[in-house]
Write a structure and sequence with these properties.
NAD(P)-binding protein, binds nicotinamide-adenine-dinucleotide, six-stranded parallel beta sheet, alpha/beta, Rossmann fold, 259 residues
């Protein structure tokens, strides 16, 4: 019998979140941390084994797996329909699912590898804008979108040129969406991750001096394969804060690339 884990806080009580790529790595940690704050979480991943494992592990009554390929528009239609059928509303989207090819000379990257990186990392956000945002606007309560970019968006590294370029597109789209939908009370933020030892292919190979230095500085080898939950959940509450209207406007329209 699975025991429901403790609710540690109430910051996301009453909210419903979709976490793409929630079946592993950062997405797994985000899903669990959100549930610890009272959030209902849809774990949306193309990997059924990982997705089911996360959804049933710690908060089986608050989490639900929906098999989703974020690069596929029909899957977004199903994801939104099934999320609303399961939990009745939706407030938060974490666009976390991402992919890369293994670090290698850029002249050797194939067209299929390029297309896949842009489909999973960038086109997914295009699909989410068409299918998630209209639901938030219809609900009328505002909401949050958190896009997982990469430090490579602003500090591109050799051997991962098209991955970095895809994350730069994520960062730019994040700012554009924030500017466009802030007035609808939709907060859009980005997080620029550095290097962590998940199952992500980006971390598999660092043959260049610059990336080797970065790895030793930012991703100690002792890090677990699955990162532990962050000490505080991302600021995903859609409740208006007590800030002044001008402060509110600024914070809702900002894109914070933390690293
Ligand atoms: N790990 C790092 O060092 C690092 C650094 C910078 C940015 N990031 C970003 O963080 C995010 C999460 O990476 P991670 O390190 O947790 O990787 P991970 O490989 O552990 O997890 C990625 C998850 O996304 C899922 N996924 C992949 N393609 C998908 C698709 N088309 N549809 C639905 N799900 C899909 C995978 O099944 C997996 O569960 C990615 O966007 C990645 O670009 C990671």
């Amino acid at each position: 019998m699975t025991t429901e884990a403790k609710i540690l806080g109430t910051r996301l009580q009453g909210k419903v979140a979709i976490v793409t790529g929630g079946g592993s790595g950062f997405g797994e940690a985000i899903s669990k941390r959100f549930a610890e704050e009272g959030c209902k979480v849809i774990v949306a991943d193309m990997d059924s084994v990982g997705g089911e494992r996360v959804a049933s592990a710690t908060h089986p009554h608050s989490m639900h797996f929906i098999k989703t390929n974020v690069a596929n528009e029909a899957d977004w239609e199903q994801l939104m329909e099934n999320t609303l059928a399961k939990f009745g509303r939706v407030d938060i989207l974490v666009n976390n699912a991402g992919t890369s090819y293994k670090n290698k000379p850029t002249a050797e990257v194939t067209e299929d590898e390029f297309d896949k990186v842009f489909a999973v990392n960038v086109k997914s956000i295009f699909h989410s804008a068409r299918h998630f945002i209209p639901n938030l606007i219809n609900q009328g309560d505002g909401g949050s979108i958190i896009n997982i970019a990469s430090i490579g968006a602003t500090r591109p590294r050799p051997g991962l040129v098209w991955y970095n370029a895809s994350k730069a597109a994520v960062a730019n789209a994040t700012k554009g969406l924030a500017a466009e939908y802030g007035e609808k009370q939709i907060r859009v933020v980005g997080i620029g991750e550095a290097a962590f030892s998940t199952s992500f292919p980006e971390t598999l190979s660092y043959p260049f001096p610059e990336t080797t230095k970065m790895k030793s500085a930012n991703a100690p080898s002792q890090l677990p394969r699955t990162p532990s939950a962050p000490s505080s959940a991302p600021q995903a509450s859609s409740k208006p804060s007590s800030a002044s209207p001008q402060q509110k406007k600024t914070s809702r329209n900002s894109c914070s690339m933390s690293r």
